[in-house]
Design goal:
alpha+beta, 60s Ribosomal Protein L30, Chain: A, 6-stranded mixed sheet
Length: 126
């Protein structure tokens, strides 16, 4: 089993003992991304759409660092503190992916790291 750590400065550094992504053979497991500005590690200012777009931008940057693209994603998990934002997630996600879309789960949670309102992780196959 070939295991490689994927990292890019275009996405936030890990907030704990984990990697931005781990590649095993041709599968890449991307850790949860939250709307932090990579340069400052502060939460982005703006509405839910701004936050969601930054999360997907981080996923895209990590996918590219792994040698792939968003269209290589097979599964995305999205964590929301308010499911009322579900339609906005759909709009933003449609900007980042082409059909056929990856499998996805959207889950409402009580809280997320740093008090953010959205987080997403993904699995991609190169």
């Amino acid at each position: 089993m070939a295991r490689e750590i994927i990292s890019t400065d275009k996405a936030p550094a890990a907030l704990g003992p984990y990697s931005q992504a781990v590649k095993v053979d041709n599968t890449v497991y991307i850790s949860g991304q939250i709307p932090l500005v990579p340069e400052t590690m502060e939460v982005v200012e703006g509405n839910f759409e701004v936050n969601a777009r930054l999360v997907f931008t981080h996923l895209k940057s990590i996918a590219e660092a792994a040698g792939g693209s968003m269209n290589d994603f097979t599964k995305v998990n999205i964590f929301l503190t308010d499911l009322a934002n579900f339609p906005i997630v759909n709009e933003v996600m449609a900007e980042f992916f082409d059909e056929p879309y990856p499998a996805r789960a959207a889950i409402q949670v009580a809280a997320l790291p740093k008090g953010v309102i959205v987080e997403a992780d993904a699995v991609m196959v190169l």
